[in-house]
Amino acid sequence: MAAATPTAPRRRRRRSAAAGSEGEEEPSSTSTSPPSPQQPQQPAEQQAFAQQPPQQRLELNVWAYKPPWCQPWSILVTGAAVVAGAWAVSGRSPVWAALAALPIAAWWYFFLLVMPAQFRAYAEQSNAELAAQQQQQQRRGQQL
């Protein structure tokens, strides 16, 4: 099963009139340095996005950004159904149910506990940076 990573809402890419057909994107003006052996090269668009300051406050709840099929209740129900299915198919064998429960428990741990905590820390840091940036802009405006 593939799982989504926590991300802020994606921004739409701008397309210029010169880009032509609908599938083409505007070329990036940011140059990239050659990849170092320790770090893989990121696309210029991804580098530019990472360097942009946040434009709006982030919701601290990661589940606000997830679709309905990726909410805590659906993760719990799916995991329980897999364990119950393994138990039923194996002739009610607790060994097979336990073997199915191990990866499900790891999945629950990471996606219901670790990922939301990491996203919350990221959102709080991002919101603090945004607040500091806004205060700095207000001070500049008052000085003029």
From TrEMBL:
Signal peptide: none
Limits of the DUF6737 domain: 61-117
Record carries keyword Transmembrane helix: yes
Alphabetical list of InterPro entries matching this protein: DUF6737
GO cellular component labels: chloroplast
Low complexity bias: start-end ranges: 41-54
Transmembrane segments: 73-89, 95-115
Alphabetic keyword roster: Membrane, Transmembrane, Transmembrane helix
Keyword flag Hydrolase: no
Region named Disordered: 1-54
Pfam families assigned to the protein according to its UniProt record, in alphabetical order: DUF6737
UniProt xrefs under PANTHER family: DUF6737 DOMAIN-CONTAINING PROTEIN, PROTEIN, PUTATIVE-RELATED
Record's protein name: DUF6737 domain-containing protein
